[in-house]
Design a protein that fits this description.
This protein has 432 residues and is an alpha/beta fold. It has helices at residues 49-59, 89-92, 108-119, 130-135, 140-146, 171-178, 198-221, 231-238, 240-249, 283-292, 296-299, 307-312, 314-325, 330-339, 350-354, 357-361, 403-411, 415-423, and strands at residues 26-27, 40-43, 63-68, 83-84, 87-88, 98-102, 123-126, 151-156, 225-230, 265-269, 276-280, 344-346, 365-369, 375-379, 384-385, 388-389. The longest helix has 24 residues, at 198-221.
């Protein structure tokens, strides 16, 4: 398969000021979904997993107060290049619709202020190993002493218990532990990481789901919960079908370039120009495929009657399909298969994806205008309610942008109180 050429790295000097995001629709902040309106969340997390989880809650209407170090803030603010107008695009991808408070809670007065916020919150997200959380007095016992019905959400690499609990972890480490890297990559090649922070995003989604479930339960029981999400656990769950197949058969999955699915024909194929993916997932689709390509008798062979039979003869079938598809270009085959209701598609690069008219119509890509004049691209949640995509309530915040607003609104601190805290380096100056 011929590799597709890509545009130069963002580190390379551009010959034009035009950026891919300039073509996206520009949206003004709006009310957005209101399913979680009135729910308050204090977010102590950094990087990707925790922020992605709290952004899901924000997209559904919760008020998220993001607590950041006055010096530097969230670790992801420094992740780049690429940067857009000095801002990390990784940070901007998981932090919209939040309020940033620059607060040093390692100082006693800062911790008092944090506890004040926690006392008025429904949910707290933390992504510190247990030992560090206890040291900083933001572990579950400490924060539930402030509010007993608090929903405490912990996202760590390995969980809150066991010998690995205090081990450091990132997405890459979790992917290695989970087994996903061992089954990803070409046959005979090296193990590969998934091309996105999959463990982070899965753990964030798990944490958001569990938090909402616990919130629902609290309505009737009045009880808070301690939710323990581990990157390794979330990533391992992604392998459920592979693990189940091994447990029930003893057959150890190996790297195959995605060509060893339980579905007999479920892989990439070259055409006369660009490659496609093809999934002949059941007996009816199998028959329709061979009718569409003009060879129905081949598909009707008794040897190919079931998926199990086709798997035994996969190599023979794949060779025949590969020879056939190389005869005409991708566009021909995709049009033919779509009309015949055969699952097939292109292998899009990122620039293809962001130009996809269907995804754009579903609100997956847009720009949002910030109060300070920044215009920041966003990737939507991908959830429509009553046929409509959500609207972000705000752009990813500048560090400490909402410090004054939150401390005055939630805790009633006066202007002079806040000035004193700034002078003592307990809070950062608000950029609002």
């Amino acid at each position: 398969m011929t590799p597709r050429s890509h545009t130069p790295s963002p580190d390379v000097e551009r010959s034009t000021d035009t950026l891919p995001c300039d073509a996206l629709p520009l949206r003004q902040p709006g009310a957005g979904f209101q399913l979680l309106a009135g729910v308050r969340v204090v977010d102590l997390t950094t990087s990707v997993a925790g922020p992605s989880g709290t952004m899901l809650l924000a997209d559904m209407g919760a008020e998220i107060v993001k607590i950041e170090r006055p010096s530097g803030g969230d670790d992801a603010r420094t992740w780049g290049p690429p940067f857009l107008e000095g801002e990390s695009l990784w940070f901007a991808g998981v932090n919209r619709s939040k309020k940033s408070v620059a607060l040093d809670f390692s100082q006693s007065r800062g911790l008092e202020l944090l506890y004040g916020l926690v006392g008025r919150a429904d949910i707290v997200f933390v992504n510190l190993p247990p030992r560090v959380a206890r040291k900083l007095k933001v572990d579950a016992d400490a924060l539930r002493a402030v509010r007993p019905d608090l929903i405490y959400v912990s996202i760590t690499g390995f969980g809150l218990t066991g010998e690995r609990a205090d081990w450091t972890c990132y997405d890459l480490i979790a992917e290695g532990y989970s087994g996903i890297m061992d089954v990803t990559g070409a046959a005979g090649g090296e193990p590969q990481k998934i091309g996105a922070p999959a463990a982070d995003m899965l753990a964030g989604q798990d944490a958001a789901f569990a938090a909402v479930a616990a919130l629902y339960d609290r309505r009737t029981t009045g009880k808070g919960r301690v939710i323990d999400v581990a990157l390794v656990d979330s990533m391992t769950r992604l392998l459920s079908c592979r693990i189940m197949s091994y447990l029930g058969s003893g057959e150890l999955p190996t790297r195959s370039g995605g060509k060893d699915s339980v579905i007999a024909i479920y892989q990439t194929f070259d055409t006369a120009d660009e490659p496609i993916v093809l999934a002949l997932g059941n007996d009816n689709i199998w028959q329709r495929f061979w009718a569409a390509v003009g060879d129905p008798s081949y598909g009707q062979s008794p040897d190919f009657r079931t998926n199990a039979g086709r798997r035994q003869l996969r190599e023979q079938i794949v060779a025949r399909i590969a020879q056939l598809l190389r005869g005409k270009p991708r566009r021909h085959w995709l049009d033919l298969f779509r009309n015949a209701r055969i699952p097939a598609g292109p292998i899009n690069a990122v620039d293809d994806v962001v130009a996809d008219e269907t995804l754009l119509a579903r609100g997956m890509f847009y720009r949002i205008a910030a109060a300070d004049g920044r215009v920041i691209p966003q990737v939507g949640t991908g959830i429509l309610l009553d046929g409509e995509p959500g609207t972000a309530r705000g752009a990813p915040p500048a560090l400490g942008e909402h410090t004054d607003e939150v401390l005055a609104g939630w805790l009633g601190l006066s202007d002079s109180d806040r000035r004193d805290l700034v002078e003592r380096n307990i809070i950062g100056r608000s950029t609002a």
